[in-house]
């Protein structure tokens, strides 16, 4: 009989009931005595002008540093960021003077609410500066982590960085010892040095949220979704996705078991985090060579065809623009073509991560990418250009409304565009993929790659902020234990070596020390398929969803225009209704519809498996159980001595 993983139950029940547990009233949020509509209008007009100007200056300084990484440009960027923080604090104090729930104009009321409930401007100046300094320090520490190569015994030459070194090794190495070494090095050199700073950050973040009227910082993070039942809605979607995830997990585990053997992978257990092709085990597409269904079938990679046809980075950007104008969306301005960075300069250091930029002056929009002529970069260009289109469409909104309808909308819409571009049908239509797109083998391979990127990512995207909510709510005592508890619960992932509370493995993911919310990526994943399904339905597509291509569909373009122009001026569920579907809220049904052919295939492949999912045994949980939990667990389990013996041995080896 498998060991019962009793420790996850309280967290799971908290999550499933969180719609009730975390619901809050606007009445608790800071409010002032001023109900004057005219004064509110004047303040917001002044704020709109000031915020737009500050945004232009900060974006310009950030762009200058990102495209020319000198100490001078970095100093100028930091100066502008400090001025922005000062402006935000002053603006918050002014906004907090209004009795915003009683402002009669709904648009003004909404703007005041957005301004008051976001950020940490409620803090005293000393604490406000301290938390910004802490975040900056943690980001800088993360950026400067260097680790030792496998079998490198000279620690004076430990110079591997996350990108590209760590990523490249995790993606391409099939030596489990090397993968374990890199995994341990990265996690050991990120978490422990940052732990004290992170704990202080938690303390101040909670103080800021309480001063604004929230119970803790986790509640403030959730409040941005403006939905009392948001957590319940999220839990419902995950319960729908989970069976598909477990089928995919079971198939992948078997292929990894065949590859690495029982010393690395247990045939019915969780998967160790180091062998999934990603330092965080958040998506698994880089192990496609191990798990692809039909390895002899031609893969969907049009890089060679791009090179054969003489594509340049500029031509790739022009191709992406034509995709959007074919939908009836806006052409790009001369400023875009003049100011964007399309290729890596040879004479200066730049940040090469692809990104779309809005300079907040309704004129200047740019894209930064060190483009190479590859299929991956072509897809990335289409993705980033979707953000540019979003900026263009909501440009006439007030500053506070120039954003996605909720934190996941920008990314969800951009990814929905990629679903149309990155599929065999579209690539065939634009003359880049000349093979037959109807073969069963090609479609199963394609859906497997997409599932490794999307379905495998879903539980990770969900649990990161679940962990953060728990830390804000319950404190920092067992942070590492709670991190791995959730990873085992949702992902079926365990650390490859023993971890304890001296570690802080969550901060190995940059979004956590950088104070960047993560739930938006789970929301974006759902929205991606909801938007794509709606657009395909609008153009009359009736075949399997993964074969849909909205290219040249003006019907799809009209819906896109409507939802993008709204920006954040409306509740995101009102924007979802513009998709003209029956769904009123987040739904996993379109995602399941997209992957239905693969799910049927997986069930056939897994028909002889004894267990779909994973059995969590004592040796799995003992990898990260804190000392007091191990002892108390044994005390309650006096009639089953074997697990206690295993725990005792584990304690002697790893803790004493």
From TrEMBL:
GO terms for cellular component: plasma membrane. Disulfide bonds join 148-158, 352-370, 536-548. Glycans are attached at residues 68, 151, 584. It comes from the Eukaryota. Zn(2+) 1 binds at residues 383, 387, 411. This is Angiotensin-converting enzyme. The active site is at residues 384, 511. Coiled coil: none annotated. It comes from Popillia japonica. Residues 1-23 form the signal peptide. The keyword Disulfide bond applies. One of its GO terms (molecular function) is carboxypeptidase activity. InterPro entries: Peptidase_M2 (IPR001548). Its EC number is 3.4.-.-. Zn(2+) 2 binds at residues 383, 387, 411. It holds the Pfam family Peptidase_M2.
């Amino acid at each position: 009989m498998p060991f019962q993983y009793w420790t996850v139950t309280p967290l799971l029940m908290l999550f499933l009931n969180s719609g009730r547990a975390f619901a809050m009233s606007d009445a608790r949020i800071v409010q002032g005595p001023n109900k004057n509509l005219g004064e509110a209008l004047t303040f917001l007009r002044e704020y709109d002008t000031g915020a737009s100007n500050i945004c232009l200056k900060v974006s310009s300084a950030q762009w200058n540093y990102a495209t020319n990484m000198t100490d001078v440009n970095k100093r100028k960027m930091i100066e502008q960021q400090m001025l922005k923080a000062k402006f935000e604090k002053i603006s918050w104090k002014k906004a907090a003077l209004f009795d915003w729930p009683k402002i009669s104009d709904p648009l003004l009321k909404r703007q005041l609410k957005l301004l008051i409930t976001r950020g940490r401007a409620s803090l005293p100046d000393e604490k406000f500066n301290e938390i910004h300094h802490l975040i900056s320090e943690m980001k800088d520490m993360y950026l400067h982590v260097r680790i030792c190569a496998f079998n490198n015994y000279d620690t004076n030459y430990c110079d591997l960085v996350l990108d590209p070194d760590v990523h490249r090794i995790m993606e391409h190495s099939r030596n489990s010892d090397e993968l374990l070494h890199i995994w341990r090095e990265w996690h050991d050199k990120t978490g422990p040095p940052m732990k004290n700073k992170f704990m202080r950050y938690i303390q101040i973040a909670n103080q800021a949220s309480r001063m604004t009227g929230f119970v803790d910082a986790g509640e403030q993070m959730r409040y941005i979704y403006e939905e009392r039942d948001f957590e319940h809605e999220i839990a419902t979607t995950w319960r729908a996705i989970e069976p598909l995830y477990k089928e995919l997990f079971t198939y992948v585990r078997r292929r990894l078991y065949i590859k690495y053997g029982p010393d690395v992978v247990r045939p019915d257990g969780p998967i160790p985090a180091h062998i999934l092709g990603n330092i965080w085990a958040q998506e698994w597409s880089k192990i496609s060579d191990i798990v692809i269904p039909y390895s002899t079938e031609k893969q969907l990679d049009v890089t060679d065809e791009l090179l054969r046809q003489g594509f340049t980075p500029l031509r790739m950007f022009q191709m992406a623009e034509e995709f959007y104008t074919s939908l009836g969306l806006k052409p790009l301005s001369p400023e875009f073509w003049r100011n964007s960075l399309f290729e890596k300069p040879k004479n200066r250091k730049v940040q090469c991560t692809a990104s779309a930029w809005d300079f907040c002056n309704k004129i200047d929009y740019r894209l930064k990418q060190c483009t190479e002529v590859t299929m991956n970069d072509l897809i990335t260009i289409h993705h980033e250009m979707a953000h540019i289109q979003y900026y263009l469409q909501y440009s006439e909104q007030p500053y506070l409304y120039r954003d996605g309808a909720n934190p996941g909308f920008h990314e969800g819409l951009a990814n929905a565009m990629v679903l149309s571009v990155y599929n065999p049908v579209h690539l065939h239509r634009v003359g880049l993929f000349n093979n037959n797109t109807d073969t069963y083998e090609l479609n199963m391979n394609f859906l497997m790659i997409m599932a490794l990127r999307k379905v495998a990512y879903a539980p990770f995207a969900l649990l990161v902020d679940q962990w953060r909510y728990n830390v804000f709510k319950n404190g920092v005592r067992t942070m590492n234990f709670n991190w791995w508890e959730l990873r085992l619960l949702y992902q079926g992932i365990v650390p490859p070596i023993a971890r304890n509370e001296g570690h802080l493995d969550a901060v190995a993911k940059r979004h956590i020390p950088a104070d960047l919310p993560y739930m938006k990526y789970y929301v974006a994943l759902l929205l991606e398929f909801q938007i794509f399904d709606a657009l395909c339905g609008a153009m009359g597509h009736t075949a399997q969803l993964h074969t849909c291509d909205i290219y040249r569909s003006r019907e799809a373009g009209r819906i896109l225009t409507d939802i993008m122009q709204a920006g954040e001026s409306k509740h995101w569920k009102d924007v979802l209704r513009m998709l003209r579907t029956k769904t009123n809220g987040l739904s996993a049904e379109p995602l399941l519809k997209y992957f239905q052919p693969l799910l049927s295939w997986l069930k056939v492949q897994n028909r002889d498996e004894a267990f779909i999912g994973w059995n969590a045994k004592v040796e799995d949980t003992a990898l990260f159980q804190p000392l007091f939990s191990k002892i108390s667990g044994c005390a309650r389990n006096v009639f089953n001595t074997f697990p206690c013996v295993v725990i005792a041995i584990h304690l002697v080896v790893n803790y004493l």
